[in-house]
Amino acid sequence: MPSNKETLFQDHLCAFLSTEHNYETFEASRLTNSNHIIEKDLIAFIKNTQENKYQELQENFGTDADREIIKALELTLLKKELWLVMREGLTVKGTKVLLYAQKPRSATNTTQAENYAKNTFTYKKEYYYNPNNQERIDIAIWLNGLPIIVLELKHEDEGQDVNDAIFESFLKRDLKNPIYKNPFLYVALSNTEAKIATNPNSEKNFRWFNASLQNKAETKGEYPVEHVYRYALSPENICHYLEHYLVFVPAKQKEVDGEWQTTSSFTIFPRYHQFRASKSLAEDVQQFAENKQVLGKKYLINHSAGAGKTLTIAWMADRLDSLYTSNGKKVFDNIIILTDRNALDKNVKDDLEMFTHLGTKINFAKRSKNLAEYLEKDRDIIVTTIHKFAHIQEKLENDKSLKNRNVAFLIDEAHRSQDGKMALTMRKFFNDEEAEASETDEDETLKELQKLNISNQVFVAFTATTTPKTVSFFGEPFDVYSEEEAIAEGYILDVAHNIISYETLYNLKLKEAIPEKDFPIGIVSKLLKNIAYEDDSIIQYKAEVIVKLFEEKVVPSIQGQGKAMVVTSSRIAGLKYFNTLKTILEDKESEWKVLYAFSDFTHPITNEKIEENTVNQLNGKLIEDVFAEEGNRILVVANKFQTGFDQPLLSTMFLDKSINGVNAIQTVSRLNRKHRDKEQEDILVVDFTNNAQNIFDAFNKHRKGSPYKDKQPEKQVLVDLFDEIVNLNVFTEEEIELYVNAFIDAELEARERNSTADAILSNLNQDYRTIFKKKLPELEAQKNYVSLLRRYTKLYYFIAQFFELTPELNEFIVFAEVMGDTLIRKGKTSEMKEFLKKVELSKGAVKFTGTKTNLTVVGKPKKKTGLKTGKGGHEIPRTTIESAIKDIQEKFQISEEDAILIKEIVEEVSETTSTKETVIANKNNQVYLKTSAEPRVQSEVKDEYIKRDLWDKLDDPMYVQKGGIISLIGKTVIQNLIQAG
Questions:
Q1: Which of 8-17, 107-116, 252-261, 721-730 has the highest mean predicted lDDT (pLDDT)?
Q2: SS (H, E, C) 176-228
Q3: Which of 310-324, 417-431, 844-858, 953-967 has the lowest mean pLDDT?
Q4: Which among 500, 587, 498, 508 has a CA at the least distance from the CA of 544?
C-alpha cells in the first residue's frame, strides 16, 4: 500500500512557501497563455509600479495596451531568455517597462522598497501545462505572472531519489513546451538531496545543489533539503538571482580539427556553496560596517579545487559592490580582485567578462598606469595582478584623495605569480608550512602585513588548502567547500587513491677534502639530494621507466587523449629529463612530443642562457597552449605549473621531487580536473621518492576542510623560554646587562661616525666567545644554547605584537638577537655551494616498492592551532656536508644487484672503446655516427654488462629496445668522446 509520502513532502513545501515566504496560490482565476504567462498578474504589476509608463501605453494603444505588452514580450522571447528580459526590462514600441522590482540597495530608496513589496510570487501544485495530455509539474513558481522555477519531487521512502526526478519526470516530458524553456531554474528534489539545471533537456545539465555532503535540516520539523525551500526559493534570493547571479553565455564559434563548430548559448546558475559564500559574506560585511562604522575585517574562503572559485569571486565582487549602509552610503568605493598574471590573461578575465550586466564597472589593469587611472577615476571593480598589491597600498596611503577610500580586496591564491615583494608576502600565507622560504622571511612577511592600516579595508582570501599562517592571519574559514564534497559531487577526481611507488637510493662521495663548517641541515640535505637527482645515469634510468609507463598507461588514457607531467627537482634536472625523454621518443620513432616548462636561467656549468621559448621552439606562444595541442603529450616541469595549471587531459604525474603538506596537494591536484572522457581509472601517480604515505597524509588532513583553528599566542611561552636560558648560567645577569648597554652605545656612536664604542664591543664579543666555550666545552651544548637564543628572537617578535612585555624581556632581545649570530660563526650559503661542487654520486639505484593505496578512512580532523610556538619556537638544526654524506650512506644501503651501473659503464666504455679516434674524426658526420659508431659502441656496452654477469639486463626491453638504456649509454659515450676530442 503506497504511503503517499511524496505528496506529503509536496504539501509541506507548498505550505512553507505560503506561510514563510508569503507566496500566493494559483487560483482558478489565474489563467496562463501558451507561454505559461499569467497575463493578469503581469499587467497588474506594471500598473501598480509604473503608472506613468502604463498611461503612456494606453495613450498610444488605448484598450489594446495590455495586448501590446504581451505581444512585445512574446516576440522578445523568440530571441532572448525570459530572465534576461526581466533583468533588462521590456521595450513596448519605444516605452520601456520593468517586469519585476529589485530589492532596494539603500534603505533611503522608499519608492523602490514600495515597488519591491508589490512583487507577486505565486506557486501552483500539480500544474497541468499541456491541454492535450495529463502531463503535470509537481510545483511551478511565477514572479509577477512570469514562469521562473519548476520543481519535480521524489521521496526516498517510496523507492525514488533525486535522479528519478530527472529521468522519470523531466526527461520523459515534452521538453519543447515553453514551460521547459522560459523558467531559469529546474529543480529535481528528493526529501534528502537536490539537483538543479538551467536547461532540463539532458541529465548532464543537472548539478548537485546540496548544502553539504549530507544535508540536514536547520529547523526541527523540516526536511534535510530545508536549504532549498527556506533559502533558495525565498523571494529575496530569487530577486538576487535576477539582479546578480544569473549569467548568460552566448553562442560561440570555435575551430575543432580544422572545422568551425558553434557552441550553444547557455545560462549559468551558482552552485549552492557559491551562492552561500558570496551572499553570507556580503551580509556579514554590511552588518559589521553598520554596527562598527569601520571596516578592517579579514575573511578566509576555503573552497576545494573544482569549486568554481573564479565565478565565486565574480559574484562576491558584484554583491560587495552593491552594499549600502542604512543611511544610503556605499560600503565600498572599490572592489579590487588580485590574481595571477596568467589567470588575468585567461580564465579570470574570461569569466568576469561574462558578467555583462556589470558593464563598465569591471576594469582590467595589467599596467600600473591603468591601475592608477582606475583608482583616481573611482572605477567600481578593478582586476589586477597580485604583484601590484604593494603599489596599491602605497597609493591608498600616500594619495590624499584616496586615503579615506573604502576598499575590498578579493585575493586569489596566486601561487604562480613571481613578481614583487608584497606579492611574495601575500603568497606566503597560502603556501605550505614546509615551504622553502626561510623563517626570517616568514617573520618579515607577518610584520609587513601587520603594519598595514586596514581600518577602511576588507580582505577576502580564497584558498583550497589552508596553512597555519593563513589561519593565523585571516582567521578560521568563513565558508568551506571541501575536497570530499567536490569529489562526491563529481566536480573533480580523486587523485590520492593509488600511487605507484619507487625509491631512489644514492651514495655520494667527496672528490677532495673540504673545511668543516656547519650549515642548516635541511638545506644541506636538499642540495645533496639534488646532486643525486641531477645525475645523468639516474635520470636516464627513470626516463626509461617513464616512457614505458607512458606507452602502457598514458597513451590509451582518456580515450587516447591522456597527457603526463614530470615534476623534477631542479631546472638542471628538468633539462636533462627533457633531453633524455626527447631522445628516447625520437629513437622509438614515436609520434608523441615532450615539452619543458621552466623559468629562464643561466646554465651553471656552460654559462649558456637556457630559455623556455628557445628550448621548446614556442615562437612566442604560451607553453600551456602548445601543450594543449594533440601531439604534445609529456610536460616536464621545474618549479612551474605545480599550482594554478588547468589541463583536463592531464591524467598522469611522475614525481621526481619530494612533496609534502599543502605543496603535495597542490601539485598532485593538477590531475583532478574533469573532462567529458576522463574517468577515475585514468588517473596515475608515479612517485620516485618513496613518499606515497606523506602524500596520502596531506590529502587526508585537508580532505574535509581546514585542519587548523585560530588561536591567540600565550605570553607565558616567552617567559618560560627566558627562564630556561638564564637558568643555564652561561652568562650572569651582570654580563648580559653589560653587553646590552655596550651594544646600544656602539649603535648610537656609530651613527655619529665614532668608532670607539664599536671597538670596545668587538673586544667584548671575543671575551664572551671565550666565556661561552669555557662554560659549554661540548659542541652539542653550545649548539643547544645558541638554538635557544634564536628561538627567543623569533618568538619575541611574534608575542610582542599581542602583549606588553616586561623591561627584562624587552632588554634581553638585544642580547639574544646579537649573540645568536655571534657565539658560533655560521657557514655562508655561498661557501656551501662551492663545497658542494666537490661532491659527486658514487652509487645509485631506483627500486620499485609496489603500488600504495590510501586506505585511511578520513575522520573528522582534530583542529590544530594556526600558531606554532611549541616550547619557544623552532630552531633549524645544522650539520656539516661530510656528516650529511655519511648519514646518507647509512640510510641507503645499495647492493650490487640494485645499483644502476650506467655511469660506471659510460666511464669505462669512454676510456676503452675502439671507436674513439674515428668518432672524433667524424664528429660532424651524423650518418656515420648513427649508422656505424652507435651500433659498435652499443655492442661494447652490452659486453660490459656480460662481463659483470648481468645477463638479465640484456633480456629487459627497457635496456635493449629502441631508445632503451643501452642506446642511451651509447649516445652518451659518443658525446663524451666528441667533447673530449
A1: 8-17
A2: CCHHHCCCCEEEEECCCCEEEECCCCCHHHCEECCCCCCCCCCCCCCCCCHHH
A3: 417-431
A4: 587
CB atoms within 10 A of CB 353: 12
Residue type for position 27: E
**pLDDT class of 366 with cuts at 50, 70, 90:** confident
Cell numbers 586615503 correspond to 403
47-91 residue pLDDT tens: 999 999 999 999 999 999 999 999 999 999 999 999 999 999 999
Compute the half-sphere exposure of residue 30: CA atoms within 13 Å on the CB side of its CA: 24
**For residue 345, what pLDDT is reported?**
56
Nearest-5° angle of CA 216, CA 219, CA 225? 40
On the 0-12 / 13-18 / 19+ scale of CB atoms within 10 A, 648 is middle
Distance CA(119)–CA(126), nearest Å, equals 23
As a dihedral over the C-alpha atoms of residue 35, residue 38, residue 41, residue 44, rounded to 10 degrees, the angle is 60
**Which candidate, 315, 121, 114, 145, places its Cα nearest to that of 233?**
121
Q: Where are the alpha helices (DSSP H) in 234-354?
A: 235-240, 272-292, 309-321, 341-345, 347-353
Where do runs of H (alpha helix) occur along 506-549? 521-533, 536-549
> Taking the CA atoms of the chain, what radius of gyration do you get in angstroms?
34
Look up the pTM and report it. Answer: 0.78
Question: Is 651 within 8 Å of 554 (Cβ atoms)?
Answer: yes
**873 backbone φψ class: left, alpha, beta (φ>0; ψ -120 to 50):** left
Q: What does the block give as the cell for 424?
A: 611574495
Give the ranges where 20-136 is alpha helix by DSSP (H): 39-49, 51-61, 65-77, 82-88, 110-117
Q: Which amino acid is at 574?
A: G
**Sequence letter at residue 856:** T
Label the pairing between strands 207-208 and 194-197: antiparallel
Range 16-24 average pLDDT: 97
Rounded CA-CA distance 473/708 in Å is 12
Q: Is 496 helix (H, G, I), strand (E, B) or coil?
A: coil
Task: Identify whether the C-beta of residue 840 lies closer than 8 Å to the C-beta of residue 508.
Answer: yes
